[in-house]
# Entry
Amino acid sequence: MERRGLELGVGFFLLVGLACLAYLSFNLGNVQLWGQPYYEVYANFSTVGTLRVRAPVTIAGVEVGKVKDLQLVNDQARVTLQVQKNVKLAEDVIASIKTSGIIGETYVSISPGASDEYIKPGGRIRETQPPLDIENLIGKFVFGNMEKPESQ
Amino acid sequence: MLRFVQFVGSRALDNVEGLGRMGVFFAHLLRGIFRAPGKFRPVLKQIQFIGTRSFFVIGFTALSTGMVLGLQGHYTLAKFGSESLLGAAVALSLIRELGPVLTGLMVTGRAGSAMCAEIGIMRIDEQIDALECMAIDPHAYLTSPKLIAALIAFPLLTAYCNVVGIFGGYLVGVGLFGLNPGVYMNSVETSVEWSDVHMGIVKSCCFAVLMIWICTYKGYFTGVDEGNFGPEQVSNSTTRAVVLSSIAILLCDYIVTSIMT
# Structure
């Protein structure tokens, strides 16, 4: 009987502990153990602003993936996006980097295209829009006169 | 004057000797893992002792810490109008920092002191010498199962502590301040990364090794320094074991954090 209590106690502890650990790593830590239901596409931007790895990728405001990697290729920023397998991207989608609110987090927004051709895994999104440079805009607004075309 | 110099020298030598003995003790502790007698049942017993019986204490600590973090975090974040980040603040500080440290300290107080006293009493009763006489490795029999059990129990207890703490923050944030439940959980989920969870696990494993090492060492060598084996020595070594383990855990916490970030 004493042995049974010991085994019950240990088993209970191990199960609850493992459940908590699993919740932390799979649900919060986004660890993928079996199969990746994602495919990757990349896009070149002239600048990515404050975009960071793991920023969300959205279509029509719905999150469909994550930014996987940021690299400098030929003086351009190559952004690798991880998109869910069940979301197909048409050839002519436009990827733009946006900010939620004025000082909110940066994310990649993809606006749907109309083409019948789909981008294959590992393919490239051709149309891109760099983020709005708010500092630059404010600068233009405040020191507007200095950048008027006639000075050229 | 000469006496003073001699005093300093002898203290330094004692300390170096103690460090060396700790190192050798650790080597024996590791060697004991691979030696007879079998470990399965002792390890189970120790998991029961370290893990299952700490459930209530850890849960209570985690719940109150989570709720306090919720209160304090809300107070601070409300000044910037970003209450929606409450979940992130609670979850990150728990998973990266407070979960492993609080678990380590609580388990040291609960189980570490008991281990030290148990082994210390075996030492003053000459039971350890008896084990050696019977050609049973006292490390393999007494200390190594504790190390294995702690390495299993600590990460699990830490995970449990984190989850309960996040739930405590949820109680305060949603129940008391009327935050949107979805906003809280979403901010938890988006802010926590695998690297944070990983760091918490590494920390808890480090604390497990430290706690077992120091507590069993202090117990094992109870009274050896004084050359006097009495009940007073057990109480001394238990006190020292708990204080030293707690300090080591806090120091190690800083070191691990600075290495891993």
Notes: The interface with chain A takes residues 44-45, 47-48, 51-53, 55, 91, 95, 152-153, 155-157, 159-160, 162-163, 188-190, 192-194, 196-198, 200-201 of chain B (CB under 8 Å). Residues 86-124 of chain B form the longest helix (39 residues). The mean pLDDT of chain B is 89. Residues 22 and 133 of chain B are 23 Å apart (CA to CA).
